[in-house]
Design brief:
With about 80 residues, the chain is mainly alpha-helical. Helix content is about 45%, strand content about 0%.
Length: about 80
């Protein structure tokens, strides 16, 4: 979770931070072995993440549905 203040960085900086956080999460999950029941082999998972950032100062009227669509498009590019 990122805390935004009145002195928040620009969208490019926020986007890069979000991408780094998403990649960190992806690597953590990829490197983990998940035990799904006793006596069964562990499974490995992969995760794809889409990132979209809105700057309320420059795009205050951006509908949440449009931001969600941007994140969804980013998710498909990540796959």
């Amino acid at each position: 979770m990122m805390k935004l203040t009145n002195h928040a960085p620009n969208c490019a900086t926020l986007t890069r931070k979000a991408q780094l956080a998403a990649d960190r999460l992806r690597r953590i999950i990829a490197n983990a072995a998940f035990q799904i029941g006793e006596g069964r082999s562990a499974v490995h998972l992969s995760v794809s993440v889409g990132v979209a950032v809105s700057d309320a100062g420059t795009t205050p009227d951006l509908p949440l549905t449009q931001l969600w669509s941007c994140a969804d498009q980013a998710l498909y590019r990540a796959k």
